[in-house]
Amino acid sequence: MRKAQVDALTTLIEDFNTLFIRLPMVQRLGFSSLSVVHTLSRRGPMRLTALTATEQLTQPAITSLVQRLEEDGLVERRPDPSDGRAVLVSLTDAGAEVVRSRHGNRVDRLAELIAELDTTQQDAIARAMPALRRIIDLGAT
To answer: What's the pTM value of the predicted model, to 2 decimals?
Structure first.
């Protein structure tokens, strides 16, 4: 793929992400809060230091954010069984429900938008999915 095509793809992904982030019409939370909740839903309980790295926030910022999420009942802190000095942050049932409801709402809204495409465009998206998954997997390593 030529650099100009990669540049166009990057812009397209950025624009799509902007749309995608705003698709859910349920439980409005800030971007950082949602990012932490979604990270915990995919990776399971994590230490604050690990969240600092994944969320690209400072230690004081992630501590404050986790405290707010805890007050909202979306996460909880528990002692790390492998190190009594550390704590693990995990989703509560309410936090997991936020993730489920946002995902379901996104599926519904995106399905409505995709239904407006012709079948050739819908098929092109379906054919691109394995390559997009591979890019995600490569980026995660």
So the answer is: 0.79
